[in-house]
Amino acid sequence: MAGLPDRDRAPEFGRRLLDWFDRHGRHDLPWSTGGNTGKDPYRIWVSEIMLQQTQVTTVIDYYRRFMVRFPSMKKLAEASLDDVLHLWTGLGYYARARNLHKAARIVVAEHGGRLPDDIDLLTRLPGIGRSTAGAILAFAHGQRHPILDGNVKRVLTRLHRIAGRPGQRDVERQLWALADRYTPEARVDRYTQAIMDLGAGICLRRNPKCEVCPVSELCEAHQHGDMEAYPAKAPRNDKPVKTTGMLLIRNDHGEVLLEQRPPAGIWGGLWGLPECEADLPAATRSFDTLGLTLETGPPRDPIRHTFTHFHLDITPIPARVRAMIGAVMDNARLVWYNPGQPKALGLAAPVKRLIEDPD
């Protein structure tokens, strides 16, 4: 069956996939259930942004907490960025949270608080690309739009044994054409969830479960027994390692000094520990901007945090305040943080770990 022309393969692929989804698909995801709110575009939008580059199992708890705090577009738009980043702490890819907050304010100001149901308007909002917009409109309104997230790319690449890497322009065009061809006119919301589920749970990157795949007979890679050769992998480049020191500055009350990071870049807008050169004595940092005189202790063992493109080795340096000039109180980008009674601030995961670990 893998040799069927595409025009014949698409209906059979859709039928098999939907039959499988009816029996084995995920029907109880919190953003797709809940009575009258099950088709709420706001809830679906939040979930789709959280699911960008993050697995469903990781997202669910974050999503539930987020919905309790921001149950509507209006509540999200009215919130401070700190409140939003606080609930995003640990989920990573913080630009998603900044874009979500920015988009909510645009929707309230320009669209009456209702997420647009037009794909062109939707993709003009920060953080929403073609695939995310297609998923939102399919789930919320039943509109027929193809999607092409990482899971779908893997399914289609194996289905047709497409050479080249998905990030390449010609391969991307081919995959979008196939995604459009396979997307049915009816039950598009179920199909969209089904092909995501197939990629997430069956057509795995390593050790795909072809023995239980509903479309394995249609899959060219399965017929040739070379599933893991597709999609083609990018040439391996060892991630570079960067280093930094982070000052764990505590005052006499046990509070930790935090410094807000610039709005763009790594951990943009989050609160972190003041940084210094990891391989130099902490005293070499100019503390004039902090308005403090410090007594530093011996550095602790480094911890590693891994980003998409590099590793960051962080050397924690404990410090106590010996004298305070007052700049801390006058600087809005500095705050004393009480771990026992934490403020609602967005913290990067390794910063949160260092603050909570007394050793």
CATH homologous superfamily of the largest domain, by name?
A: Hypothetical protein, domain 2
- Report the C-alpha radius of gyration, rounded: 24 Å
| CATH fold description of the largest domain | Endonuclease III, domain 1
- On the 0-100 scale, what is the average pLDDT? 88
Shape estimate:
globular
Helix percent reads: 40-55%
Portion in strands: 5-15%
- Reading the helices and strands in chain order gives HHHHHHHHHHHHEEEEEEEHEH
How far from one another are the termini? 61 Å
Quick one: how many beta strands?
Answer: 8
Uncertain stretches of 5 or more adjacent residues = 34-38
Class based on secondary structure composition and strand pairing: alpha+beta
Number of helices: 14
Q: Tally the structural domains.
A: 2
The CATH architecture designation of the largest domain is Orthogonal Bundle
Indicate the CATH class of the largest domain: Mainly Alpha
Biggest sheet statistics: 5 strands, mixed
Describe the structure in your own words.
- The protein is α+β, with helices and mostly antiparallel strands and 359 residues long.
- It folds into 2 domains: 6-229, Endonuclease III, domain 1 (Orthogonal Bundle); 241-356, Alpha-Beta Complex (Nucleoside Triphosphate Pyrophosphohydrolase), CATH 3.90.79.10.
- It has helices at 6-24, 41-50, 56-69, 73-78, 81-88, 95-110, 119-122, 130-141, 150-160, 169-182, 188-201, 220-224, 327-330, 349-356, and strands at residues 241-250, 256-260, 271-272, 275-276, 292-296, 303-306, 311-324, 334-337.
- Strands 1, 4, 5, 6 and 7 form a 5-stranded mixed sheet that branches.
- A hairpin with a 4-residue loop joins strand 6 and strand 7.
- The radius of gyration is 24 Å and the shape is globular.
- The model is unreliable at 34-38 (pLDDT under 50).
